[in-house]
């Protein structure tokens, strides 16, 4: 597909779902099983939920797996708040293991309970919890997987079956009551958290981490940085000293580098899909621990470094890594405005390409931060969690660029019994592809959605 920027903006309302896309959507599914089955145009209109939680298409149903404030089945304390990034792992006997982030700041009212051997900083209120589900997705166990961290936003799974949870902060010890420095990545084992413990992977850098994707061929780790202040975040790669070494191997250290696109200091200035940059450079980060200066502000020598606002989702597909810039606003310091981009980096050719551009979200009064968490659906398609004002959705996108709503959160506001429903986050699928798991950020809730996903 190709279209002018004006055409992209004009088609937003016509699509009905509220988001417009342009670009070579087939790029997103290259080399994946999903590429064989794309083409459907959605599952039909959303049916209002009589219970006021999630509106889904006909033939789909949801189950609430976990709510903040309820008691963890382990007895360690209440289910923490602010459910965010999540991954699903297969287990024996049809079991599914979920690892779920809790983006708790120092002010969080329901922290992740501290547990001996799993707590990094006793003053940190973030972390992860792990759920084990049976073959029918009934909860068998729910427990703390790592605690004492801060602002655990997104992350990524590893080829050896663990979750890398990312701290979206760079607060130092002594800030907000913290005892230790924050801004790290932690490895979490889905079934045996004590095997990974609460050890920061310091060589992966100390910055406002968002998401991670790993090249399964050589173990290179790609990282996004969602920095809140201009100059904005960088796109990093980590070359591990012990690539693909299994659980705990990233503790062996390695080399952290930042991406430089020659002549492009800010990715927001690129507006046309298909724009390609060859000869991408990778520059060593002078001080990955940011002892004196944040990594994005360090001296990268002649040519500087390339920044981008709101770098969020990151995933591996085929032979390339894809990463998301949710939006850019010149009023906040970006060089240009956009409503969302998806970039593809091809390491084999050192080539960066803008493959998808998001149009404005017509469901809100102000331009919405459209793409956030993102994943490939096993039955075909791309699933995108919307992050903005107004109604909250999970959208699907076909290879032809057709957009459809998969789920919509409740919109009632203002009563204790039915509080405002926050954004969706952490969308992921069961190993058999039959169930979509997704979180509501606030009030923190984890759902299992079943239905004719391959229909």
TrEMBL record:
Alphabetical list of Pfam families matching this protein: PhoX
Signal sequence interval, chain numbering: 1-22
TM spans (from-to): none
Record's keyword terms, sorted: Signal
Signal among keywords: yes
InterPro entries in UniProt: PhoX, TAT_signal
Keyword Signal listed: yes
Record-linked PANTHER family: MEMBRANE PROTEIN, SLR8030 PROTEIN
Protein name, UniProt field: Tat pathway signal sequence domain protein
Source organism: Streptomyces capoamus
């Amino acid at each position: 597909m190709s279209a002018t920027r004006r055409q992209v903006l004009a088609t937003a309302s016509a699509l009905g779902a509220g988001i417009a896309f342009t670009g070579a959507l087939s790029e997103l599914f290259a080399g994946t099983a999903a590429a064989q089955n794309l083409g459907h145009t959605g599952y039909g209109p959303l049916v209002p939920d009589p219970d006021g939680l999630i509106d889904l298409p006909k033939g789909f149903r949801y189950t609430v797996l976990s709510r903040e404030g309820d008691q963890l089945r382990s007895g360690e304390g209440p289910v923490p708040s602010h459910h965010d990034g999540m991954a699903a792992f297969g287990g024996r006997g049809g079991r599914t293991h979920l690892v779920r982030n809790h983006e708790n700041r120092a002010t969080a009212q329901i922290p992740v309970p501290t547990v001996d051997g799993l707590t990094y900083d006793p003053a940190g209120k973030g972390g992860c919890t792990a759920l084990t589900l049976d073959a029918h997705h009934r909860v068998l166990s729910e427990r703390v997987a790592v605690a004492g961290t801060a602002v655990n936003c997104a992350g990524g799974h590893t080829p050896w079956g663990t979750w890398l949870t990312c701290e979206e902060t760079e607060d130092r010890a002594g800030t907000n009551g913290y005892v230790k420095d924050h801004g790290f990545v932690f490895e979490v084992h889905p079934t045996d958290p004590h095997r990974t413990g609460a050890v920061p992977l310091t060589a992966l850098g100390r910055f406002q981490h968002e998401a991670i994707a790993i090249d399964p061929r050589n173990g290179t780790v790609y990282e996004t940085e969602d920095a809140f202040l201009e100059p904005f975040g960088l796109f990093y790669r980590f070359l591990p000293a012990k690539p693909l070494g299994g659980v705990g191997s990233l503790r062996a250290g390695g080399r952290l580098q930042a991406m430089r696109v020659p002549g492009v200091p800010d990715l927001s200035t690129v507006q046309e899909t298909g724009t390609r940059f060859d000869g991408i450079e990778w520059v060593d980060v002078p001080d990955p621990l940011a002892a004196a200066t944040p990594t994005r502000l360090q001296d990268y020598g002649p040519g500087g470094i390339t920044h981008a606002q709101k770098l969020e989702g990151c995933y591996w597909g085929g032979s390339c890594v894809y990463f998301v810039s949710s939006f850019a606003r010149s009023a906040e310091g970006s060089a240009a405005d956009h409503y969302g981009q998806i970039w593809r980096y091809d390491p084999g050719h050192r080539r960066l390409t803008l493959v998808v551009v998001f149009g404005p979200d017509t469901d809100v009064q102000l331009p919405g931060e459209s793409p956030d968490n993102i994943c490939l659906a096993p039955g075909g398609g791309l699933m995108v969690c919307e992050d903005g004002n107004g109604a909250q959705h999970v959208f699907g996108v076909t290879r032809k660029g057709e957009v459809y709503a998969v789920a919509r959160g409740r919109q009632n506001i203002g009563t204790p019994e039915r509080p405002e429903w926050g954004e969706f986050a952490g969308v992921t699928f069961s190993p058999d592809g039959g169930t979509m798991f997704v979180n509501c950020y606030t009030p923190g809730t984890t759902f299992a959605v079943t239905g004719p996903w391959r229909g």
